[in-house]
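[Q] Does anyone have a clean structure-token version of this?
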Amino acid sequence: MTSTVAAPQLPAELSLDVAQATTDEASLRRFLRGLPGVDAVGLELRAATLATRSIKRASKVHAIDTAISMIDLTTLEGADTPGRVRALCAKARQPDRERPDTPQVAAVCVYPDLAAQAVQLLRGTGIHVAAVATAFPSGRSSREIKLADTELAVAAGASEVDMVIDRAAFLTGSYGRVFDEIVAVKAACGTGENRAHLKVILETGELGSYDDVRRASWLALLAGADMIKTSTGKISPAATLPVAHVMLQALRDWYRRTGEYRGVKAAGGIRTTKEAIRFLVAVHEVAGEQWLTPDLFRFGASSLLGDLLLQRRTQLEGHYASPDQIGDL
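[A] Here you go.
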């Protein structure tokens, strides 16, 4: 195992300075510090304005189904057991046992030592298995340990890896260190069609400013993240609409300059159907309709699923359903 990995080739459409930033700490810092500052007042106003939009009743079931199909159903507790994973996978396959037309979720997310069991239970369903890695949630360990953590998840069959960035390194301006670590973890995810997709968790609640959220988003994209993720869900604030707007803007601008689609995962604190729909509106309006797919947008919010199922029943049956009807995780 080695922590020295060649940096990926960046698209030619990016500036020369960005290309040099793959190996040069100074030029990477120059690029990130040269990104336009975020107008915090304008950002929050637009996020609040879009959040007031409503959707027609006829479109609500479609929005709910879309949100369900984007969920990473997650259990990341020290007390997780094989029985808990078994129940989670059953819920992922059939979210509402009385309505088989309910979509499956996008993925089940667990710790690496439980990934093999989830892979076995979900084989043939099309539901991904994601495993957190790199000393989740703190990211406080050596690179060797972080890579071993990633390799454990991949060897267990995880098709997605959720890594955390070294926030201390980022906040002290050691952008090259963060970049190199993402590159190394992506290499540990494998190659070819069987490569595990990499989600890079920024832990935006610890970054302190929208400007740093923008810099962290671009840094992760430059290093090869398939998806950038707001939070671990372990601290507050987690996923907020203004932060999601900043990250979605980065994806949109990346696509415009490179022609490559990358994704966003909003994780932590999203509990109601109303909140989920607000995020879907943000995706549509900030990035574009093409991002409204589980390949490019995810919710990391297991408690959200229960409310989505209740609201789905309400829309289809015309009366409020009981939580007992949809079952527990």
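[Q] Thanks! Anything notable?
[A] The beta strands are 72-74, 107-110, 128-132, 160-164, 197-201, 227-229, 263-267, 297-300.
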